[in-house]
Write a structure and sequence with these properties.
Elements: E1 2-6, H1 13-21, E2 34-39, H2 43-52, E3 56-58, E4 61-66, H3 75-87, E5 90-97, H4 112-140, H5 145-162, H6 174-183, E6 191-197, H7 205-209, H8 212-220, E7 224-227, H9 229-236, H10 240-249, H11 256-267, E8 270-275, E9 280-287, H12 292-299, H13 301-305, E10 307-314, H14 315-321, H15 324-330, E11 334-336, E12 346-352
Parallel strand pairs: 1-4, 1-5, 3-9, 5-6, 6-7
Antiparallel strand pairs: 2-4, 8-9, 10-11, 10-12
């Protein structure tokens, strides 16, 4: 799964990318999309690794792409921006809400709501252009029942986009959803907003909750979060105990990077299950709703093909018991068949034969 980091120039988007991936900016890549891997923080993996002391600990990962900053009105900038956006599975829009002489805001004035809407507007325009071109193609071609059904849907989408309503906000039938999926509309993609604020305002949770951006996102069902990239840079330099003390001083529950990564993971409909042992403790990423047999296939196709049973215990039950033997005694470690729906946090040992 690919996270596309988007935003206007100087929003702090590249700093956030560097913090998420650990990759420093390559100045030869300026104006081009930069890619890296994001480790998904998970306290459950930390616990299991401390307990088993394995040779290797593997966290779930996502790919992040630092998409070139959008310069409104610059045709070349917009074209490269939209090309990169199409590849992403989810968009994280980074908004500037901090003062820095070296990072001048758009049009010389800080206006987070305007910046958010500028990016969304470019996505709406791109989708509208795609819809209008397809409508013209259908009208100029040979009429058919399938084309007429598609045309009716496209007219519906056109009206919505002209009213600045994203595709993701529309109520569509199952058949319409299927047709829409083939287009890969930009405003149909999952979306998260990150507001990059001055470090002096990072603890003003009430102001964040009552902001114009919060109201805008709340009304549209868009997850949002406030963080300070500068503070996150400082947090990244601290060890565990110092980090926690620093967060407490700032009245912050956890690092903003952890929160944002979790928001992205949830918005994508992803969950993690775990495999454990002395060799490796590993978090596996799957889409919510997969069966035990399908989950086994994420490890190896042989496991899916030769699936027999899955030994499963929920992480919370395991942590409470303290060991597999204790979980077995308590009855929380159980055998499940191929149609069992895997839950987030399940610890699984697959039995298979090929």
């Amino acid at each position: 799964m690919q996270i596309g980091l988007v935003g206007l120039s100087y929003s702090g988007k590249t700093t956030l990318f560097q913090l998420l991936t650990g990759i420093k900016q390559d100045h030869t890549m300026q104006g081009k999309a930069n890619r890296g891997v994001v480790k998904v923080p998970d306290s459950r993996v930390d616990y299991l690794s401390a307990l088993y002391k394995p040779k290797k600990t593997t966290y779930a990962t996502l790919e992040a792409v630092d998409i070139p900053g959008l310069i409104p009105g610059a045709e070349r900038s917009t074209a490269s921006f939209l090309t990169a956006v199409r590849e992403a599975d989810i968009l994280v829009n980074v908004i500037q809400d901090f003062e820095n002489p070296e990072a001048p805001p758009h049009e010389g004035e800080l206006n987070p709501q305007r910046d958010l809407e500028l990016v969304l507007y470019e996505l709406l325009l791109a989708d509208l252009d795609q819809v209008e071109r397809r409508i013209e193609r259908i009208k100029s071609g040979k009429p058919s029942k399938i084309n007429q059904e598609e045309l009716a849907l496209l007219q519906k989408l056109k009206s919505a986009l002209e009213a600045e309503i994203p595709v993701s906000s529309l109520e569509l039938s199952a058949a319409e959803e299927l047709m829409v999926r083939n287009y890969r509309f930009l405003t149909a993609k999952p979306y998260v907003v990150v507001v990059n604020v001055d470090e002096s305002r990072i603890s003003d949770h009430e102001a964040h909750s009552n902001s114009e951006i919060a109201g805008f996102c709340r009304e549209r069902g868009i997850p949002w979060h406030y963080l300070s990239a500068r503070i996150e840079s400082e947090i990244a330099e601290l060890d565990g105990e110092e980090r926690q003390l620093f967060l407490e001083e700032l009245n912050i529950k956890e690092s903003g990077l952890v929160t944002v990564t979790r928001l992205v993971y949830t918005r994508l409909g992803l969950i993690s299950f775990f495999t454990v042992g002395e060799d490796e403790v590993k978090a596996w990423t799957i889409t919510k709703g997969l069966t035990a047999r399908e989950a086994a296939g994420k490890i190896h196709s042989d496991m899916e093909r030769g699936f027999i049973r899955a030994e499963v215990v929920a992480f919370d039950d395991f942590a409470r018991a303290g060991s597999m033997n204790a979980a077995r005694t308590e009855g929380t470690l159980r055998l499940e068949g191929k149609d069992y729906i895997v839950n987030d946090g399940d610890i699984i040992h697959f039995r298979f034969n090929v």
